[in-house]
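Hey team,

Filing this mostly as a record. A colleague (T.K.) asked me to run one chain through the structure pipeline before their review meeting, and I want the input and output archived in the tracker in case anyone asks later how it was produced. No errors, nothing strange. Just documentation.

Input sequence:
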Amino acid sequence: MLLAEVRNIQGKYIPRKIRLDDHIGNTDGWFIWGGSNFTHSARNVALEETPWGPKLCADLPMINGGSRGRQGMMLSDKIQNNDGRLKFLGP
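Output structure:
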């Protein structure tokens, strides 16, 4: 679950949440938009602040049990603030 305070067009900050497991999956050790339930296999999940916005990072296992190393994806690529609401833009 991603929790955030997002600003609407009046400038008011509103607490909102979006369930990342509804939009992000693990496909053979890679994050994938349009997937689901990445948290079922991910380890060491964290958000990293970057100059471009929050980055979701985790260790994601491959199908064969191996690892591709730590993976990351920029949440702002597909999740935006739409007048005080978090909106998933689609895969």
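Quick notes for T.K.: The chain is about 0% helix and 55% strand. Residues 1 and 17 are 7 Å apart (CA to CA).
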